[in-house]
Every structure is written in C-alpha cells, then in structure tokens.
Amino acid sequence: MQDLSNLAEMIARHTDGDGVLATAIPRLSLVRMSKQTEPMQGLQQPALCIIAQGRKQVLLADEMFEYGPARHLIASADLPITGQVVGASPDEPYLSLKLDLDLSVLGAMMLEIRPQPISLVPTKSCGKALCLSNTDPKLLEAALRLVRLLDHPDDIPFLAPLAEREVLYRLLRGDQGEKLRRMLMPDSRLAQVNRAIAWIRQNYDKPFSIDRVAEEARMSTSSLHEHFREVTAMSPLQYQKQLRLQEARRLILSEALDAASAAHRVGYDSPSQFSREYRRLFGAPPIQDVSRLKTGPAAYAPASA
Question: Which residues contact 128 (CB under 8 A, 6 or more apart)?
Fold first, then answer.
C-alpha cells in the first residue's frame, strides 16, 4: 500500500491539471482527472495501465471492465473501447499511468526468458485482448522506479530502458504473461487475429470481404469469426464500423468537416446510415456530439489508461 501511495504522489506531482501528460520517458504517459467523466471512445493500443488512485470503467463491445488501485489492465491488441472515470474528486483525483508496450523489447525478452514450469504457470488467463489482473507488489515496485526517474531527468536516457525492461519482465512473469507470449508468436491465434486487425485498420475506409481478411490472418473464415470475436468481443465488420465512426468523429472535430463529408471520407455511402450508427455509438448525432465535446472538454477523459 505504501508503494501505491508513493505512486499516486508521484503522478500527482508530475501532472499539472486534468488531462494526459506525455512524459520525458518514452512510451510513458500520466493521467489526472479531478472529477468523474462522461464516456469517451478511443482506440486502445497494446499497453499496461495502472491506476494509483480512483476508479475507471472500460467498455469493450458489450463487456465492461472496471478497475482501481488494486488491479491493472493489459491490452494486447488495438481495440476500439469506451472509457469513463467513475471514481474521482478534487480531493482525491483519478491518477494513473499508461506504458505503451514496446513489442520489439518484449519479443527479445521472450526469447531470453526461460518459460516457467507448467505447474507454476497461472491457470487463470482471460481470452480477450483486454484483461484485468491483480497488481503484484513486484510489478508495482518496478512501475514506481520507472516513474521516479521523472525526478532525475539526466538519468532517464540511461536508466529508463532498464526500469521499463523490469516492468516488462514482471508482466511476462505475471498471470497474463502467457497471453503476451502468444501475441508475439507468429503462429498463435492472437497473432493471427492481430494480423487481421492490422489489415482492417489499414483498409477501414474500403469495403472488404471476410475471405480477404481471413487470407491476411492466415486463418479459415470460420476460425477468423470465432477467434476474432473471442479476442475483441466483436466481429470484423463491427470492428471496422467502430474505426470508421471514431475517425469520422475526429475529422468533424479537428478538421471541421461536415457530417456528410466525414462519412464519405471514412467509407460510408449513405449519410443517413452514418448518422444512425454515429448516434448509436456516441449517444448523439454528429453536430450535437461535437458541440458537446467542444464546450465541455474537461468532462471527457481519454478512453485509454
């Protein structure tokens, strides 16, 4: 508990106001929110998220993940999610860190680390690419050592890679270590689904057939349907739809496109279909939704972390 308190103190000290802070340590971000937020959609990339204070809900399709200081979240694929801070106040703000997973370092470490004996490998591991785990004290200690380097900027180039490596080592030795290994093994189901995800992300604005995605994933179509849903909690077409709608929202918000132009840009032929699906995902039609985001940005937290 002392390490958790120390981590919260470090995050609070290195965040100036609400929002997400990219730090001087590569791949490490800190998040602070002083009040509960509205749901916010986004794309969660492979990462470790540790909450030091407060609580958060993450929605993957229809599956809800809620966690706080005693647990952490690991994402092992690019996933469209909805995040909402549900435990925060000015006196006790939501404080968390997000460490994007360096897959090249993880892959090299996987080859170096001898697998644990079968009898010692934890048996409880969720099948989704988004999973919650209890935070082991050794993982918490390693994360705290990494964040403490923010107090010593001159040490970061030399010591941050070592501290990050320790965090990744603890993940590989933890109860989701086998999932991370499968993510990096080219013939595993998770790696095959990740290939399908990568192809859909590159071609989200174009029509595609399930056969084409299955070919890219090196799977049969029936196997792709089964394992894609197992990993992401949605079908490939549902995944594409969420990517399209999130990109359309970004275009309307950041490039001031009208709804029809944004819909066409992301691959919709029917503006009315786009409007219906946009409202279903974001809870309001495009103009109303974007106006809400512009007038009350402080109420919206990032989906990840």
Answer: 60, 63, 230, 231, 232, 233
CATH class of 238-299: mainly alpha
Contact yes or no for 97/32 (Cβ under 8 A) = no
Q: What is the mean pLDDT of residues 134-156?
A: 97
State how far the Cα of 156 lies from the Cα of 141, in Å rounded to an integer.
17
Assessment of whether the complete model's pTM goes beyond 0.90: yes
CA end-to-end span of the chain, whole Å?
20
Radius of gyration of the chain (CA): 20
Mean pLDDT of 14-40: 96
Give the pLDDT confidence score for residue 119 in this predicted structure. 45
Cβ–Cβ < 8 Å for 71, 59: no
From 123, 135, 134, select the one nearest 3 (Cα to Cα): 135
Could you state, in order of their start, the residue ranges of all structural domains in the chain? 2-183, 186-233, 238-299
Candidates 3.40.50.1000, 2.160.10.10, 2.60.120.10, 3.40.50.1980; CATH matching 2-183:
2.60.120.10
Name the CA dihedral angle for 54, 60, 64, 67, rounded to a multiple of 10 degrees: -30
Q: Is 4 left (phi over 0), alpha (psi -120 to 50) or beta?
A: alpha
Among candidates 64, 46, 7, which has minimal Cα distance to 30? Answer: 7
Tell me which residue has tokens 């709608």.
245
Q: Within the chain, where are the H helices?
A: 2-13, 103-112, 137-148, 156-172, 177-184, 189-202, 210-217, 221-232, 236-254, 259-265, 271-282, 286-295
